[in-house]
Design goal:
By secondary structure, this protein is an alpha+beta fold. The protein has an 8-stranded antiparallel beta barrel. A hairpin with a 5-residue loop joins strand 2 and strand 3. The radius of gyration is 18 Å and the shape is globular. It starts with a helix and ends in a 12-residue tail after the last strand.
Length: about 180
């Protein structure tokens, strides 16, 4: 009986650990094909900053380029007030293709970034687990090569975000804008 109980508890713990790491990564990820210009079409998050800034957010451009050592340089340009803001991030490759890590120099938060699915020519769905001293949060991004994306991709983004535990009010299809689109790197 004791061994059975330990076995059941062990399986429960293993299941909990697996569920935490259950975010998939694009099979046969091809890093060279993810590079180039993307538009941020959707953003979902349960973080406090998202809740506070959600009403101000608009579509932005993101340019992804590979570095010589196989990491990704990610530059996002977005409207902030009446100006265009640029943010550069270096996503460090991990042993798993399609999975990257990033530490925010500003906030000290650690980001586990996964390209969940993409066809490289139309869309990319990216999930990020963010950990910092005050807790953790989840973020899902939907990128598109064009400013519009078919409804099936938008539905997939919403469905995947909900699978990650995000609620309807934490999921946003970003309002389209032409502001800052020409200023992108």
């Amino acid at each position: 009986m004791h061994a059975t109980l330990l076995g059941v508890l062990g399986l429960a713990l293993l299941g909990a650990l697996h569920a935490q790491d259950g975010v998939p990564v694009q099979p046969d990820f091809q890093q060279d094909k993810i590079t180039g210009r993307w538009y941020s079409i959707g953003l979902a998050s349960n973080s406090n900053w998202f809740k506070e800034k959600k009403h101000l957010m608009k579509m932005c451009t993101t340019v992804i380029s590979a570095t010589a050592d196989g990491n990704l340089e990610v530059t996002s340009t977005y409207p902030k007030g009446d100006q265009c803001e640029k943010r550069n991030s270096l996503y460090t490759k991990t042993e798993q293709p399609g999975r990257f890590s990033y530490t925010s120099p500003r906030w000290g938060s650690k980001h586990d970034i996964r390209v969940v699915e993409t066809n490289y020519e139309e869309y990319a769905l990216v999930a990020t687990q963010i950990s910092k001293s005050t807790g953790s949060s989840t973020m899902v991004l939907l990128y598109s090569r064009t400013k519009e994306l078919n409804p099936e991709r938008l539905d997939r983004f919403t469905q995947f975000s909900k699978e990650q535990g995000l609620m309807d009010e934490e999921i946003l299809i970003l309002p389209r804008t032409d502001k800052c689109m020409a200023d992108a790197a």
